[in-house]
Each structure stands twice: as C-alpha cells, then as structure tokens.
Design a protein that fits this description.
Structural class: alpha/beta
Strand content: 15-25%
Number of helices: 9
Distance between the termini: 21 Å
Order of helices and strands: HHEHEHHEHHEHEEEEH
Shape: globular
Radius of gyration: 20 Å
Strand order of the largest sheet: 5-2-1-8-7-6
Bound molecules: flavin-adenine dinucleotide
Number of strands: 8
Largest sheet: 6 strands, mixed
C-alpha cells in the first residue's frame, strides 16, 4: 500500500455515510466543571459516555477528530514503528474521528480467555486490577454496544476431536462494524452528554501534590482551553492513551509505573495466525 492509499484508508465509506451533516458541538469552556470528562469516542469512550449518562451523570466528551475520518487529522497519530512486523502502520492502526477506530476495525468480538488473567512468567508485571469473574457480567452490555448479538461466547460441541481439541468457542461479529452509526444519534441527542469534536487533549495537568488530575489542556480550532471535571477518563485507544501518559510522565517520573515499568511497556499489536 503506498502513502496516498494509506492516507485514504478510512475516508471513502465514511464520506458516503455522513454527507456534510453538522454535528451539535459546544464551545469548550474552562468554567464549567462536569461530573466526568471522557476523552475519545471509540467503542470504549462512546459506551462509557452512554453508560454514565444512564447513571445520571453530566459528561463532557472530547474527540480529536471530526465527524468522519480524514487524512489530515489522522496525520497527528504519526509514530515511529520500531518493528513493522509487529505493528500495523499508524494510518491503519488509529482512526481519529467520532467513532474512533471502529471505522476501520473488523467487528470481531470474542471474550477473554482465562489464561489472559493468569500471572505468567513471561509477562511478570502484567497484573489485572480485577478478576475475570468481575468482568463477565458486563459482557452482555458490551455485546449490545458492539452490536454482536449476545454474550454467549462458547457452546458445547459433543463430537470427539483428536488431540484433546475442543470446538466450543464462539466468535461473534458486529452486524455493523461502524458501531458509531448505531449509537451516534443517542450520543448527539443526549441532554447530559456534551460532545466537542476537533478537541485534542495535549496535556494532563496534575495537582502540585501529584495526587489528582486537575484539568486537561485541549487544543481546539479556537485555541487552547483548560477543561475541568470531577473525574477524567482517557479512552483514546492503546497507543494515544499511552503517548499522553508518557508525555505526562516527563513531569511526574514516578507516576504510571515510574521509570522501571513506564506506561506502554507491554504494548503490542494484535497477533494473527
Ligand atoms: C484494521 C483493524 C482491524 C481491527 N479489527 C478488530 C476486530 O475485528 N476486533 C476487535 O476486537 N478489535 C479490532 N481492532 C482493534 C479495535 O479497533 C480497537 O481495539 C478499538 O477500536 C479500541 O477502542 P478504543 O475506544 O479503546 O479506541 P479507538 O477506537 O482507537 O478510539 C480512540 C478515540 O480517541 C480519540 N483520540 C485519540 N487521541 C486523542 C486526543 N489526544 N484527544 C482527544 N481524542 C483523542 C481518537 O480520535 C479516537 O476517536 C482492529 C483494529 C484495526 C486497526
């Protein structure tokens, strides 16, 4: 794939689906303090904002991209891929737009395997702060957001296979991989969720004591704005969340794993095959 093909990777289908429709966007203000500020509108940020709304919270939702993917915004996700064999080019791996990388993802939905939650010698410091059983009850809601039916990810298959193999694993697929298209109206019509597109978080501002995030610095077409909230959630995807945390760590070297295990140490692309 040459550079121009890569740049155009996620644009054409998106353009057909969202013909010049202007979204409801509010101008960002430093004054208003909402319950939550969620950064990123990919599958994670989108679902979080809607869940928080259901719980009655006021949410400010920030999104770096516009209403559909474009190569200019996408260029901000440039990165040096140290081992191209292990990570897709950034033009493909990250999609900056309302809906995030769900514009380009495959829509394949599977549950975690139990081994993902076990302590393993080869990922010695990778411990989850929760257990798989605590997550399981949420698969049903996740399946609803991801439009993949229900939370049944295994089914008994009684025929005997050789070599101790089992055939009981269910792989589900989103009926519309661009899940934002299904949830967009709810997001935009919400009275509790305020969405601001073209709002790129460039810094996390931590209190003098180092124990609290006070604000985020957000780059907007009208200039930089400091955004305040009671709680902040970074849902910017694996690469961009890590990038922002590493940037923050420059001033707070002991935060986010310190210098020994800095954020992103175990980050890798999807394994195939
Ligand atoms: C080609 C491809 C195929 C894939 N197929 C599958 C699949 O079949 N099944 C599967 O489970 N996964 C798949 N994935 C992975 C999947 O797309 C991601 O795991 C998923 O999108 C992550 O969701 P997210 O909400 O965490 O992040 P993202 O979807 O990446 O969304 C992050 C959002 O944050 C925004 N953002 C980033 N930086 C900033 C900033 N500084 N300020 C404000 N906003 C910011 C972005 O614009 C974006 O909207 C695939 C990925 C690719 C690239």
């Amino acid at each position: 794939m040459d550079a121009s093909q890569k740049a155009a990777f996620c644009t054409p289908i998106a353009a057909q689906l969202l013909p010049n429709r202007l979204m409801v966007i509010e101008k960002l203000s430093s004054e208003q303090v909402r319950d939550f500020c969620v950064v990123g509108t990919g599958p994670v940020g989108m679902a979080l904002a809607l869940e928080l709304e259901n719980l009655g919270h006021e949410v400010l939702l920030l999104e770096a991209g516009g209403q559909q993917p474009d190569s200019e915004t996408g260029a901000a996700s440039k990165a040096q891929i140290v081992n191209p064999g292990r990570h897709a080019p950034m033009e493909i791996a990250v999609c900056r737009a309302l809906g995030g990388t769900s514009w380009t993802w495959g829509g394949r939905c599977v549950a975690y395997d139990d081994i993902d939650w076990m302590d393993r010698s080869y990922v010695a410091d990778a411990h989850w702060p929760l257990k798989h059983d605590e997550l399981r009850p949420w698969y049903r809601r996740a399946a609803e957001y991801l439009l993949c039916g229900n939370d049944q990810f295994s089914t008994p298959y009684h025929q005997q296979l050789s070599g101790g193999l089992t055939l009981d694993f269910v792989e589900r697929w989103a009926r519309e991989s661009r899940v934002i298209l299904e949830h967009r109206d709810q997001l935009l019509q919400s009275t509790r969720i305020k969405l601001s597109l073209r709002s790129t978080v460039t810094a996390v501002n931590i209190s003098t004591g180092g124990d609290r995030v006070e604000s985020l610095t957000v780059s907007t077409p009208d200039g930089p704005v400091m955004v305040r909230a009671k709680k902040f959630i970074l849902a910017m995807g694996g690469v961009e969340t890590t990038r922002l945390l590493l940037h923050t760590q420059r001033n707070w070297p002991q935060h986010f794993g310190g210098s020994e295990w800095p954020a992103g140490t175990l980050l890798h692309g999807t394994h195939f095959g």
